[in-house]
Amino acid sequence: MDMPARPYVFSQRAQQLTSSTIREILKVTERPEIISFAGGLPSPQGFPIARMRAAFDHVLDTAGAAALQYGPTEGYAPLRAWVAEDMRRHGAQVEPDEVLIVSGSQQALDMLGKLFIDPGSRVLVEAPSYLGALQSFSLCGPEFAAVPTDEGGLIPEAIDESLAAGARFVYALPNFQNPTGLTLDLPRRVALVQRCAQLGLPVIEDDPYGELRYAGEALPSLLGLGRAAGATVIRLGSFSKVLAPGLRLGYVVAPREIIAKLVQIKQATDLHTATLTQMAVYETVRSGFLDEHLPRVRELYRRQCGYMLEAMRAHFPDTARWTQPEGGMFIWVTLASGVDAGRLLQQAVARNVAFVPGAPFFAGVAPRANTLRLSFVTVPEPSIRAGIAVLGDLIRHADAA
Predict the structure, then answer these.
(1) What is 67-103 written as a DSSP string?
(2) Alpha carbon 372 to chain centroid, angstroms
(3) Which of 165, 203, 219, 362 is most buried by its number of CB atoms within 10 A?
(4) How many CB atoms lie under 10 A from the CB of residue 89?
């Protein structure tokens, strides 16, 4: 006799999960005819395949048993030391025991949510902010509060005692922000860490794109400025954009007390980050490879960004405004107030073009339906020009409707 199927009883946390808007759009972009400005994927042209193959071979040949064994939760000690030295080269005094190696910086976001957020806890985020962080933090049931932004990004003066009351941290992407592509200037960086020091408010500095600057001058990290100002800054970094995302390797830099708690959380999550991958990445970067590799990646992204901006100037109507990134992978577009980017996406897909509507990037504030994100790094120049021409035509028709 067949027994009736029992329904699954999911936790309340699981029941609140929703699929990533971007991931859902990427299903559409698998069609070969689609010109996709949707995915925030690094260009495969920047993957150092031969160098990584040599590094993995070297590690397996010289230290194969150790590379295939369990390792310490904190991470491979030489790689932690390399990260600390890299931070010092960029102006932040960091010791290796203030570094935790993680399985991609997305894991760091998950662990930081578990560390700081109780249900109902206030979390300050930019508006708009990185969708992956919003999804990760949402699992812990926070109350998102938006920090006002303008054409220069986050406005530090808006973080007053009322907004910061009870907040666990402020989450910020100061360099070529996802989704806007904006960079926080030096005065605002200084003001942000000083204000957060005064309020006793930790800052999570997420910086996956900082090494991808192709215009303007490099700026000091919030970590370096924060340590000088007495602020608690937790910095997230990643090898996804400087080497390859498939490595799933990132790191957290934070005060020792925070690292110690994150180590406990990571032990309960995955024990440690893949030893072989850590050793191969260290073998790749330890002798200065990034100094010769990154200029080529930056030049590639600079050209791609230029193609898109040039096409937008040629085809978008005057009612549209967009950011001018100095690095990274994204351009943020604001359309006329009556235009719905979600509806525009449906029309664009019908003409074989895809992008990401801006509404999902907002939390703690009403989403702006007239915004969208464009990514340019993986699309060939002719396709950029053709796809932007289609979008320009659709936007003009939307303006006239």
Answers:
(1) HTS---TT--HHHHHHHHHHHHHTT----GGGEEEES
(2) 17
(3) 203
(4) 8
Q: How crowded is residue 356: how many other Cβ atoms within 10 Å of its Cβ?
A: 26
Rg value, the chain, Cα? 22
The interaxial angle of helices 275-285 and 77-89, nearest 10 deg, is 40
- Domain locations in the chain? 12-48+291-400, 52-289
Of the candidates 304, 79, 328, the one whose C-alpha atom is nearest the C-alpha of residue 211 is 328
- Which fold, 12-48+291-400? Aspartate Aminotransferase, domain 1 (3.90.1150)
As a whole number of angstroms, the distance between CA 222 and CA 228 comes to 10
**Which one, of 336, 371, 374, lies nearest residue 355 by Cα?**
374
- On the CB side of 199, CA atoms within 13 Å amount to 24
The fold for domain 52-289 equals Aspartate Aminotransferase; domain 2 (3.40.640)
Mind listing the pLDDT tens digit of every residue in the chain (401 residues)?
565 666 788 888 887 777 666 666 767 767 889 999 998 899 999 999 999 999 999 999 999 999 999 999 999 999 999 999 999 999 999 999 999 999 999 999 999 999 999 999 999 999 999 999 999 999 999 999 999 999 999 999 999 999 999 999 999 999 999 999 999 999 999 999 999 999 999 999 999 999 999 999 999 999 999 999 999 999 999 999 999 999 999 999 999 999 999 999 999 999 999 999 999 999 999 999 999 999 999 999 999 999 999 999 999 999 999 999 999 999 999 999 999 999 999 999 999 999 999 999 999 999 999 999 999 999 999 999 999 999 999 999 998 77
